[in-house]
Structure formats: structure tokens, C-alpha cells
Amino acid sequence: MPTSPATLTEARRLRDHFAAQGAVVVKADVLQPADLLLDLYGEDIRARAYLTADPLRGEMVLRPDFTVPVVQMHMETYADPARYTYAGKVFRKQETDETRANEYVQVGYEVFDGQNPAAADAEVFAVIAAGLAGLPLRAATGDIGVLMAAVRGLRTTDDRKAALLRHIWRPSRFRALLRRYGAGEVPPLRAALLAADDPFAAAGPDIGLRSRAEVAARIAALRADAAAAPLSSDETALIDAILGLRATSPDALSVLRDIAVDMPSIGSAVRRMEARLSAMAARGIDVDRLDFEGSYGRTSLEYYDGFVFGFYASDRPDLPPIATGGRYDALTARLGQGRAVPAVGGVIRPDLALEVGKC
Fold first, then answer.
1. Most CB atoms within 10 A, among 249, 260, 272, 352?
2. Is residue 337 a known part of a binding site?
3. 110 in a known ligand binding site
């Protein structure tokens, strides 16, 4: 699909705006190795990305975003701190919404800087906001790190916490797990399997790739889960309070401080939020009017693990976000073979910025 000249011009303007902040202009191949994305996000990525088979390079994917290849490039250079910008097309399947484009231009700004993560968060937000100055937009923010810290602090098994963390970006599944762990329920078919003295007694011949030993290990894990004590109603209520939080950032910070009294595991994340708001205020952001949502960012690609934000057209609720971004420290550790670099970035869709500018 051809990109309009106006969109290309706006993309260049935004890229130059980011470069003026000290960002190095970089490029990424349109075709990326699929095995990396499958390793990061599992088979679910097949429903959201365009995959193809290359006779020499194996399974490849049309670039769903720039962040992963930019992180790969950065982790090979060891140049910290660093700032990057880029512009180009990304490709996403839109199986449930025919009105949304499945290919479009993104212009991004990525900051790798561990000296002051709160200041880096504020910088990216402010630089993105400046690139969109004059447009009728509203900003939304959240913090995946608060929810992750809350899950890690639950008084339950490590396996249950790992399952909840894995499904943070799947709100319905996360809610179902939380409800089941709180009720202490075991699905009927699973209960029947676990009650059998020998689960393999009525089994047919071995089929598939899993060995009998692997199946036995899975059954043992299910038995351990069934024997685990249910989550306390107090803890599930605190998780619900975080997920349901919608307020201005100062009010949200106050609520989260109160929650931290009963759930100390979120204390560090709350202090990071406080430092970020101070850094944003120092950059001229009106944090008193900045919205915060406890569940914001949970339907994005699964690498955000801290501050998340988006900019939306005030008078066009039908449009996707004009810009999005967030912190993704854990992704750098995955791609850096254990070496993590605090990182935060954001992207703007120039075509949508132009659309909003016409309103």
C-alpha cells in the first residue's frame, strides 16, 4: 500500500525532531527472524504478525515494530547512554477490526540510559508530546510495573505467580486465573484426571511430541497447584483496586501509597512513579491533569514492564492512539543475554497526526 507524500513529509519532520534531541537515525530490515518473536511472545504472535518462509533464512516475519531490532542493535554496541530514532512501515494483522490499517508508518524515539530512569521516562513523554504540539489530544498513562510487583508479592506458589505474570497482557485470562486461584476451584475434567491413581491407565498410545515423562511432570505440577491454598480475598481485592484505578496522577499516587501499606511489594514501583511525576513536572508537564489508569497498556505488545503512555484524539474516539510508548527494561535483558540496560521509548503515527490536525 503506497504511503501518501504528506505522511512521508510528516514522518521526516518527526524524525528530525527526535534527531535534534541527540538521537541517532537508524534503520531495521523489513523482514525479521520469526524465531526471536516466537521465543519472546509465544505462538500467539502468529495471530498478530505476518509470517513467511524463506528458503535460506527460515521463518521470517514482516516487521511488527522497530523496538525489538533496535534493542538488538543497541545490545551489540554497548554504547550507554544512547538515543535512537527511526521511521518506516510496520505490519500488524487486524483480524477483529477491518477499519484499522494493517500497515502504516511509525516514527520512534528510544532512550537507553540507566543513570536516571525517572528522568528518561519524563524525557520520552515530553519529546513525544512536543512532536504532537498543537493537536487536540489527551494523554493516558499507566504503570505495568506496579501490577507486576503486586503479583510477585502475592502469598501463593511461584508457579501461580508465573502464570499470572505471563497473562498480564491477556486481561480476560488474567482475571479468570485470579478468580480460580482465589476460589480454590479445580476444573471438573482436571479434577477427574488428578483423582486417578494412574492417569495413564485409560490412555491410548503415545502421540505428539511430548514424552510420557513430560506428561507425568505436567500432571505432578497440576496436582501441586490443586493442593495449593487459595489466594486470600484481601490480596485479590488489592489487585482489583489496582486494576480499577482511574484518576489524575497525583490522586492515583495517593491511592497506590495507601495500597502499599497492605501490599508492601509495590512500594518500590510506587516510589518510581513518584520520581517520574516529579521529573515530568520539571519538564513542564501538567501532571495534576495527567490521567492514570491502573490497567492501561495491558493489550500492547508484551515487552512493556513499567511506565506506559498513549496520546489519543480528543474528538475522534474512533481513531487508534496517535502515539504510544513505555519502559521495557526486561526486554533488554532477554536480548542482551542477561545484560540489562534500562530503556524507554515511544512511537508516533504520522498519518494519524495529520488526520487529527484536520479536525
1. 352
2. no
3. yes
